[in-house]
Amino acid sequence: MRQHVKPYALLVAVMFFGLLIFQGCYKFSGNQTVPAYLSIDEVDIQTNYTQQGAPTSAITDVWVYVDDQLLGVYELPAEFPVLAEGKHKLEIRLGIKINGISSTRVPYPFYNPIVYEEFEFVPEQVTYLGTLTTTYSTGLNFQWMEDFEQPDISIEESSTSDTVIKRTYPENNPEAYLSSNSKYSGFISLTEDKPEYVAVSFVSFPMPEAAGSVVVLEMDFKTNNVLSVGLLMRINDNFTEIPLVILNDNEEWTKIYINLGPNISLNSTATDYKVIFRSGLETVNEVADIYIDNLKIVSR
Questions:
Q1: Dihedral sign (CA 39, 41, 43, 44)
Q2: Rounded to a whole number, what is the distance in angstroms from the first to the last CA of the chain?
Q3: Could you tell me which residues come within 8 angstroms of residue 243 by beta carbon, excluding any fewer than 6 positions away?
Q4: Is 222:256 a contact under the CB 8 Å cutoff?
């Protein structure tokens, strides 16, 4: 799967989330030459469903700190050496791909790190941590959550849209995102007779009070047609559309974290904003099926 981002969006994503360091920088004292090893399969998230939405995630990397110094960044599943012996503080921060771009891997600021205050490192021994679990950090604002489990959908089509978004049918349709909390997903059908889809979030969202605030749109999607996601910002009573990400064909449900914050900050004179979705039937398709689910706008 490929996802494309406008160059300015990529630049400001780096500005707000920092640069990735793929090499270890932990400085060890002493003459230890035999490492201990850590093994991590994956990291999942647990949520309070009513307040934080569905527990979907795409944690691709771990940023590992020993005694508050960065050891390295490791793609999951990972097994890596640590030149430490005995008890040390071990902190694991959870990494994602902002806007689905491999070159913008960052620790997600809204997930709690996993911390062991006194982790026992044993030289030559592999400590298997398996699947770890994290949670959202406290003090977050979930401005928008749409999981399509209710008949009323908080997305409205524009006058130029040929079609509308519906819930999958029937309940537990195998094409939907199915879980203990999810029996439905949003479904957009494009045909030769109805080839265009344009829609926005039903409500407008207020601008963050603090300049430079991190604001992220989380969503799951599956599509055989391109889908554009962007911002519609109200500036001087006029709406300005800012394209952010183009999601390409993907036959499997995929989680993406779309960075809204930089473009919101660059348009500080705006009074509020909406999320806008656009899609047009590609010439290679006679029919396009686009599925989305678990939409969340998260900020601090």
A1: negative
A2: 30
A3: 6, 228, 230
A4: no
Burial class (CB in 10 A: 0-12, 13-18, 19+), 43: buried
Are the C-beta atoms of residues 249 and 291 closer than 8 Å to each other?
A: no
Whole-Å CA distances, 264 to 84, 208, 281: 43, 8, 29
Would you state the structure tokens that stand for residue 237, as one six-digit string?
Answer: 């009573």
CA–CA–CA angle 102, 108, 113 (5° rounding): 130
pLDDT of 96 over the 80 cut? yes
pLDDT digits (tens, 9 = 90+) for 211-245: 789 999 999 999 999 999 999 999 998 999 999 99
Question: What amino acid occupies position 180?
Answer: S
And the tokens for 179? Answer: 């879980």
12, 242 contact by CB (below 8 A): no
| 136-173 per-position pLDDT tens digit | 999 999 999 999 999 999 999 999 999 999 999 999 99
Look at the pTM and tell me if it is higher than 0.70: yes
One-letter identity of residue 189:
S
Q: Are 232 and 183 in contact (CB under 8 A)?
A: no
Least Cα distance to 154 among 256, 270, 280, 294 occurs for: 294
CA distance 78 to 89: 19
Cα(15)–Cα(163) distance, integer angstroms: 37
Whole-number percent of the chain with pLDDT over 90: 84
